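Predict structure. Chain length: 382.
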Amino acid sequence: MKESNMSEVYINRIAKFLPNAPISNDEMEGYLGKINYRESKARRIVLRNNGIKTRYYALTPAGEPTHTNAALTSEAINALFDDDFRSTDVELLSCGTSSPDYLMPSHAVMVHGLLGNRNLEVNSAAGNCCAGMNALKFGYLSVKSGNTRNAVCAGSERMSSWMLADHFSQEVENLKQLEEQPIIGFNKDFLRWMLSDGAGAFLLEDSPRGTLSLKIEWMEGYSYAHELDVCMYAGADKTADGALKSFSDFSSEEWLTQSIFAVKQDTKLLDRHILEKGVESMKRAMEKHHVTPENIDYLLPHVSSHYFVDGLYQGFADAGIEISREKWYTNLRDVGNVGAGSVYLMLEELFHSGRLQKGEQIMLCVPESARFTYAYAYLTVC
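Prediction complete.
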């Protein structure tokens, strides 16, 4: 299809859903529980570095679930609708998450089931933090090509239920029987203090609507899996040679005694590559589309921790793409790291802040540490 036949694509509405009340750092362990009845030694170190002050959990204070991931997502999507654009007007539903409620059916069809609106095309984007951007890109390409006139795209996570202390109890008991220290490895404990719940949703259309729209100029994605090892994973474990062994190749007893389904991260690999490849891919995207730092009014970087902010800024500066710090916009401190939903939640907050002026340009920047993937989007305020 020729470029002249392509439609323009606009983000016309943005909505979010954050479950329950915000949870402070001191309250976290009360919700998630203490592994082996002991306070985590990693908690204070991790929280000091990540700079998060509050986050949201789809849990009661007793650790009971209040929402599924699909429910969080449908709540955010329903907030997009009114008498001028109803749920039955949606032509495509595209949802991304790294924490689906089930191995199957897919996340997006479960969201569709809760919406109960009409027969429509559905897409599920899997992976980690880039899953939300991949869901957005599917919707963007559908509207741009003219396949659909609109798309609802969403990014969400419900990680709190994965981090409950009870899920590690069998591993602790196994360590005791082996007469080893009943302490969960840092690669598992680390992420218990990093991740949060929530959902965000965009309405994409082929023409602007209302007093404020964001035109999607372009989107780009880059994977470094061809040269880098797995860094963040769940439902698997690493073997002695660094290969990944699937849960389906472990016994059901090992699923429990080794916490195979816990989310794990190799923090050494993370420190070694996440910023380096982020800078490299950002520069490639900017050069491809002839964007300079002067062409960016707001940079919305999904960072898992404030620990990385200074390094990322310096990396951009060293690569000749320095973006002044007053242009950076993030809500990590108050909302937490919501993985695939974080970029949606950042843009939702900025969109409704009253700060945006027509003609300004926004860069969305999302890294994914799973096997080092990066996604970018460039928007113009209309």
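Summary: DSSP finds twelve helices and 15 strands in the chain.
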